[in-house]
Recover the amino acids of this structure.
């Protein structure tokens, strides 16, 4: 998208102002508060161009403009600064949340969710750490009838899952055996959450030809993780959403709260992001229909190089993204340090 520097500055000013005020922003506001060297007429023309680009919308003909989901995406990717630095009090609250004895880990997770919610004023979610996650020993695909196969997943503990899935009729027993061999060779000894068929060398042609089949296979693997991890998600600050005018509508708020009570969906949402250090999904980018007028920001926390859990924040799309990222970044690093200490102490006790 080819945009002048002035348009970018105006767009950033509109977003910054709307995040704080939740009131449509007019050209006079931008001229007076952010860009006094430009007349409101000049800014109004630029804002009209931004509207044509799909970056601003005008809720009423006489009102100012508000950012679109595309505008927030541009803001997050290019315009957002790191100006929302945490205070000493913020840092102290984060450190205190994780500064617990190792026999109080459930309290650490609960306090983490509470402090993240308090510091961001949004709904906080924490995926509890899976410090002793099962590792994969074998994936076996066994043809049953034409077009179906049994998936058997064997872990270091036992047979964890067997499910029947549909397979392309073009795949015979030899093809299934070869796919089983290559998946096992690539992922044996890895945690189940690290398995990704896209990472298997030489599988690109099969992935393209049989996309639905491999999607079903990954779903079985994800279900296995949920079944054996327990899917523990700790939440805090669900009622914070009522502080935002976007959720004064009772039906909208009800749908949001109902979604928060579907813990299996919350687990999938957080667990699916642990392969990325940070993620931000905005509005319609969210796969969950009940979150398509919200933003979800997550950070993964690690022990060494291994991801063991994630922290998420859900709020309106006019979220204070810089502050949320600062909070999650420090909290994730602090949690990782705490759980690394737990593992170290466990090894010394063995």
């Amino acid at each position: 998208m080819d945009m002048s520097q002035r348009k970018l500055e105006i767009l950033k000013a509109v977003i910054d102002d709307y995040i704080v005020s939740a009131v449509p922003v007019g050209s006079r506001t931008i001229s007076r508060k952010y860009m006094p060297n430009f007349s409101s007429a000049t800014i109004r023309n630029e804002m009209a161009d931004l509207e044509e680009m799909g970056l601003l919308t005008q809720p009423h003909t006489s009102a100012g403009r508000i950012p679109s989901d595309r505008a927030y995406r541009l803001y997050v990717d290019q315009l957002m600064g790191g100006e929302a630095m945490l205070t000493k009090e913020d840092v102290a609250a984060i450190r205190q949340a994780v500064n617990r004895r190792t026999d109080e880990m459930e309290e650490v997770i609960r306090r983490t969710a509470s402090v993240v919610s308090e510091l961001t004023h949004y709904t906080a979610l924490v995926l509890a750490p899976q410090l002793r996650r099962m590792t994969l020993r074998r994936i076996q695909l066994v043809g049953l009838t034409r077009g179906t196969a049994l998936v058997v997943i064997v872990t270091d503990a036992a047979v964890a899952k067997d499910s029947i899935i549909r397979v392309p009729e073009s795949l015979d027993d030899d093809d299934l055996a070869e796919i089983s061999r290559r998946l096992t060779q690539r992922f044996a000894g890895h945690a189940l959450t690290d398995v990704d068929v896209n990472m298997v060398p030489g599988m690109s042609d099969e992935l393209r030809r049989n996309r639905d089949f491999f999607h079903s296979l990954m779903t079985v693997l994800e279900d296995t993780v949920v079944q054996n991890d327990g899917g523990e998600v700790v939440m805090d600050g669900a009622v914070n959403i009522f502080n935002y005018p976007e959720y004064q509508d009772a039906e909208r708020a009800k749908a949001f709260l109902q979604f928060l009570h579907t813990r299996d969906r919350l687990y999938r949402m957080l667990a699916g992001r642990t392969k990325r250090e940070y993620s931000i999904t905005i509005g319609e980018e969210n796969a969950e229909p009940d979150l398509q007028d919200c933003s979800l920001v997550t950070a993964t926390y690690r022990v060494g190089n291994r991801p063991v859990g994630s922290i998420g924040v859900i709020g309106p799309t006019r979220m204070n993204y810089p502050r949320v990222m600062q909070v999650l970044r420090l909290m994730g690093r602090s949690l990782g340090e705490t759980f690394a200490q737990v593992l170290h102490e466990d090894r010394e006790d063995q």
